[in-house]
């Protein structure tokens, strides 16, 4: 994959792979700026099935993104494309969670879109988790930090994974598919 990034202003800094049930391999690449003083990055999604890699999708450029890390890279939405639940860290190593559903063309960061004004942790011990239902993932569980826009104390919030990979708004109550999820930190 590094060979696909020959431009002078960007480099492939990391990559994660997932193999679909049909055998296609998907790779998501952390693409970082190499320009002095410019800290920004994006994620590119590639597919390899019977030939060379083909571009599938790409996120918008995220300013202050010094690196990405993955909690999971798999098909959480059931559409056959892998989804990225991870974190982005700035140059001071402050990290925040991101969720990018796999998509052809533009991949939209859903947490920022559906939870504006919220601060979620990406730290060990309070890292985002996938809540699984009977057949598929059904929600993300994220640790909300102060001040929580819903007026509730710090703690776990749930964002339902909806059709097309969109997320619901943060709620204190786990969705119905999440029976047995512990509220303890």
What about the largest sheet? 6 strands, mixed
Shape: globular
Strand content: 35-45%
Helical run tally: 1
Q: How many domains make up the 3D coordinates? A: 1
Percent helix, as a range, is: under 10%
Low-pLDDT runs: none
Distance between the termini: 38 Å
What is the number of E strands?
Answer: 12
**pLDDT average, as an integer?**
90
Structural class: mainly beta
Order of helices and strands: EEEEEEEEEHEEE
As a whole number of angstroms, the C-alpha radius of gyration is 17 Å
Characterization of the model:
By secondary structure, this protein is mainly β. It has one domain. Helix content is 3%, strand content 42%. The chain is built from one helix and twelve strands. Strands 1, 2, 3, 4, 5 and 9 form a six-stranded mixed β-sheet that branches. Strands 6-7-8 form a three-stranded antiparallel β-sheet. The termini are far apart. The mean pLDDT is 90.
Short description:
With 185 residues, this protein is mainly beta. It has one domain (2-178). It is built from one helix and twelve strands, in the order βββββββββαβββ.
């Amino acid at each position: 994959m590094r060979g696909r990034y020959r431009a002078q202003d960007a480099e492939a800094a990391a990559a994660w792979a997932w193999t679909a049930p049909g055998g296609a391999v998907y790779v998501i690449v952390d693409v970082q700026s190499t320009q002095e003083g410019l800290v920004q990055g994006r994620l590119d999604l590639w597919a390899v099935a019977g030939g060379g890699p083909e571009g599938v999708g790409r996120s918008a450029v995220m300013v202050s993104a010094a690196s990405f890390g993955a909690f999971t890279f798999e098909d959480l939405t059931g559409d056959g494309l892998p989804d990225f639940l991870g974190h982005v860290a700035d140059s001071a190593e402050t990290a925040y969670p991101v969720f990018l559903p796999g998509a052809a063309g533009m991949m939209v960061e859903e947490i920022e879109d559906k939870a504006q004004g919220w601060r979620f942790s990406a730290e060990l011990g309070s890292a985002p988790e996938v809540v699984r239902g009977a057949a598929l993932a059904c929600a993300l569980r994220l640790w909300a930090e102060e001040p929580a826009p819903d007026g509730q104390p710090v703690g776990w919030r749930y964002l339902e994974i909806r059709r097309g990979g969109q997320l619901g708004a943060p709620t204190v109550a786990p969705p119905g598919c999440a029976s047995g999820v512990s509220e303890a930190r």
